[in-house]
Specification:
By secondary structure, the protein is an alpha/beta fold. The chain is built from three helices and eight strands. The strands form three sheets. Strands 2-5-3 form a three-stranded mixed sheet, with helices on one face. A three-stranded mixed sheet has the order 6-8-7, covered by helices on one side. A two-stranded antiparallel ribbon has the order 1-4. The radius of gyration is 32 Å and the shape is elongated.
Length: about 210
């Protein structure tokens, strides 16, 4: 009788162990199916990074329309810049039009290629070629005359002390610096920059320097 009881207990223990293990096996099986399904969904999605598409001609299109068209073709790495070199941000894309594109129209390019649009506002004329932002070369002060105050500030070291004053007699605040052009500068162009203060006078674009 004692032998029988021990046998029953052992049998129950084995069965219990198998039952306890079974959910773990099921979980493993379920996890594998989920991972496989997820991977399959990724393969069935949009174009792969190495897939090539023909780059459309975006010049003359509104910036928003150009971006929409690019995405329809599978190009999602998109950026834009101010073609006039004023360093303005394209906040409302519908207010800008495309003047240039970094990848020539008709080129077959991988869809992960970055497309950069040079743009101006709708009421502005596209330049013959994009105006490059000014930069400091050889540690000397560039000639910033006619360039936007924002672009001039961006070209100088971030730690530079800069003052900007209205060149007109109106003594206006220079708030949106991309809308103001440099009239005079100190130090003069060509001066070695060694951390000295920089001073600009400026007027709004469309106005004449006094």
């Amino acid at each position: 009788m004692r032998t029988r009881i021990i046998g029953v207990v052992l049998a129950c223990t084995v069965v219990g162990a198998l039952a306890a293990c079974q959910p773990a096996d099921d979980a493993k099986s379920g996890g594998g199916a989920t991972a496989s399904g997820s991977a399959g969904a990724g393969k069935g999605g949009g174009p792969t990074a190495h897939e090539k598409k023909t780059v459309p001609d975006f010049v003359g299109m509104g910036l928003q329309s150009a971006q929409d068209t690019a995405q329809e073709q599978g190009f999602y790495a998109l950026t834009s810049h101010d073609a006039l070199g004023r360093d303005r941000n394209q906040i409302l894309d519908r207010d800008w039009k495309v003047c240039s594109q970094s990848v020539q129209a008709g080129t077959s390019s991988a869809v992960d290629t970055e497309l950069d649009f040079g743009a101006v506002k709708l009421d502005e004329t596209c330049p013959k070629k994009d105006e490059k932002a000014p930069s400091v070369a050889g540690g000397r002060m560039p000639d910033f005359a006619g360039r936007s105050v924002k672009a001039a500030r961006g070209a100088l070291d971030a730690g530079t002390s800069i003052t900007v004053k209205d060149a007109s007699a109106d003594d206006r605040w220079v708030l949106v610096e991309s809308n103001w052009q440099v009239c005079t500068q100190s130090p003069a162009a060509g001066t070695t920059l060694n951390g000295q203060q920089v001073a600009f006078t400026a007027v709004k674009f469309g106005e004449s320097c006094p």
